[in-house]
UniProtKB/TrEMBL annotation:
Chain coiled-coil ranges: none
Pfam families: HET (PF06985)
Ranges of residues in domain Heterokaryon incompatibility: 51-201
Lineage of source species: Eukaryota, Fungi, Dikarya, Ascomycota, Pezizomycotina
Name used for this protein in its record: HET-domain-containing protein
InterPro entries the record matches: HET
Domain of life according to the entry: Eukaryota
Organism from which the protein derives: Setomelanomma holmii
């Protein structure tokens, strides 16, 4: 992220056009205590804050959401122990990257308010375009799967063949699994991109950090990278 912010002219130019503040942002707190997580309204900000956005699959299970009945509570504190794992992981990522604010659709849009959905969905593209980076839960089938997964190292590490085969059919060297194409595994991409909103979220985000089932990967206007191909 620092390299992109400091050295990528096209990415910086895209972010310099940011002008709006989302109606609500999740305040993940300040180190070292971080205190409670809560919502903050646009009127509380005197200048445009840096924030991250979230791209994820909801799945079929019920999750904690912002409703007209708990809006007042969420502005005091969000009960993080009730959050699905994907959202908890996103809060952890936000803190570890040194950011204070995060936008997640189901926690920042009143889900049972038609008027709020209409007004917020109309500016959702601007919300993603204005974020510093989007956290993409690429490998999660639902909000309960999380961004951090237990990975089999034999899947995502290269296989090293030290000797030629007896018949000379296999050359020694480093071999990567077939799934390694582009910045994610095909089933991860298909799963997340089955959501219509995700196309908009990915295209408009100036930077995206993908958390796949076998690897993390990076995508911005000027550069794509994976763990095995950090230089793109």
């Amino acid at each position: 992220i620092s390299t992109c912010l400091e050295n990528h002219d096209a990415c910086r130019a895209e972010c310099s056009s940011r002008s709006m503040i989302p109606s609500r942002l999740i305040d993940v707190g300040l180190p070292p205590s971080y205190e409670s997580v809560r919502l903050r309204a646009r009127k509380e900000f005197h200048e445009n804050p840096d924030y991250l956005t979230m791209s994820h699959c909801w799945g079929g299970a019920k999750i904690l959401r912002l409703l007209s009945s708990n809006t007042g509570l969420f502005f005091r504190f969000i009960p993080t122990e009730q959050l699905p794992k994907t959202f908890s992981d996103a809060i952890t990522i936000t803190r570890r990257l040194g950011y204070r604010y995060l936008w997640i659709d189901s926690l920042c849009i009143v889900q049972n308010s038609k008027s709020d959905w209409e007004s917020e969905s109309a500016v959702m593209g601007e919300i993603y375009r204005g974020s510093s980076c989007t956290i993409s839960a690429l490998g999660a089938e639902s909000s309960h799967d999380g961004c951090f997964t237990v990975r089999n190292p034999l899947i995502y590490r290269p296989c090293i063949i030290a000797e030629d085969s007896e018949r000379g059919l296999v050359c020694k060297g480093r071999y990567l699994p077939q799934e390694w194409r582009g910045w994610g595994r095909s089933d991860d991409i298909d799963r997340l991109h089955s959501r219509g909103w995700v196309v908009q979220e990915r295209i408009l985000s100036p930077r995206t950090l993908h958390y796949g089932s076998i690897s993390m990967s990076w995508e911005c206007i000027e550069h794509d990278a994976t763990e095995l191909q950090p230089d793109g």
